[in-house]
Design brief:
Blueprint lengths: L2 H20 L4 H13 L4 H23 L8 H4 L2 H11 L10 H19 L4 E4 L4 E5 H4 L2 E5 L7 E5 L5 E4 L3 H9 L12 H6 L2 H20 L5 H4 L2 H27 E3 L6 E3 L3
Antiparallel strand pairs: 1-2, 2-5, 3-4, 6-7
Helix pairs in contact: 2-3, 3-6, 5-6, 6-8
Length: 274
């Protein structure tokens, strides 16, 4: 079979998939709420997200109901974050190549996560779009409760939360709960090289280095004989190199940490929005 024929078959299959998706009645309300989200930049998370999540949940339920006998589209193709997000963007003609609307993208992504959880775990989530409130089962929202023990040296103690009461939460909790509910669906940034694997422990390494540096510095200050156990010519050379790198690159590392954040796909850094 020629490449041209393969391309034509693929285009036909894609069109059939598109026709099926656009035939769902839930598209009308979903498109209306997506349009509102796209146009509005004020209070998107608090006002639009609950409504958008409910319309997405209705879309998912209808899709699952009507897609059982359909051979053109599987739930693995559509009912997952990336595919749903791309479909939502297409539904309102949003093209991030023209101009990136970070607020819109964030509310769509969180709405999708909430809709998936509300569909799969009906008893643990409730979305009240009339009052724009999101409710999550207490033990799901807050797995551990911190108890304050007055007068004790270790004054804080954590214990499991067993409450099944639905409690109101803010939208910021959605990302954390989703990671717990669907750990296999959250992309993990696995190291591609041996060096990359070492970089993953840099946070721990920097803390340990500071701890040891303070210790060795104190030994040197007090002229303690133990100092020789920790330092040799190679150590002094390495410390000199560390100082040179620190003097030249500290501001770059610090400013990148302050000014940038990971994007919603977890793939790259992007400038924080003030």
């Amino acid at each position: 079979m020629s490449n041209k024929t393969d391309t034509m078959i693929k285009e036909i299959e894609n069109q059939e998939k598109t026709d099926f998706l656009q035939s769902l009645k839930a598209n009308d309300k979903l498109k209306a709420n997506l349009s509102t989200a796209l146009k509005s930049t004020n209070n998107l998370m608090n006002n639009t997200l609950p409504k958008l999540s409910n319309s997405l949940s209705a879309f998912i339920i209808e899709f699952n109901s009507k897609n059982k006998s359909n051979t053109k589209t599987s739930d693995n193709d559509i009912i997952q974050i990336k595919a749903l997000r791309e479909y939502c963007y297409t539904l309102v003609n949003y093209n991030r190549k023209d101009a990136v609307n970070t607020a819109f993208e964030m509310v769509v992504t969180r709405a999708i996560k909430l809709a998936l959880m509300a569909t799969d775990y009906k008893q643990e989530f409730n979305i009240d779009e009339k009052s724009n409130k999101i409710f999550v089962m207490s033990k799901v929202a807050t797995p551990l409760i911190v108890e304050k023990l007055e007068g004790q040296k270790a004054s804080d103690r954590k214990k499991p939360n067993t409450s099944t009461e639905l409690v109101e939460v803010n939208t910021g909790i959605i990302d954390r709960v989703y990671k717990v509910k669907y750990p296999s669906k959250v992309s993990s940034r696995t190291p591609k090289t041996k060096d990359a694997k070492s970089e993953l422990s840099f946070k721990e390494l920097s803390n340990q280095f500071l701890k040891m540096l303070n210790k060795v510095s104190l030994l040197a200050k007090n002229k303690n004989a133990e100092f020789i156990d920790h330092v040799d010519e190679k150590t002094i050379e390495s410390l000199g190199n560390i100082k040179a790198v620190f003097d030249s690159d500290y501001n770059n590392i610090r400013n990148t940490f302050i000014d940038y954040e990971i994007d919603i796909n977890g793939e790259k850094l992007e400038k924080k929005i003030a």
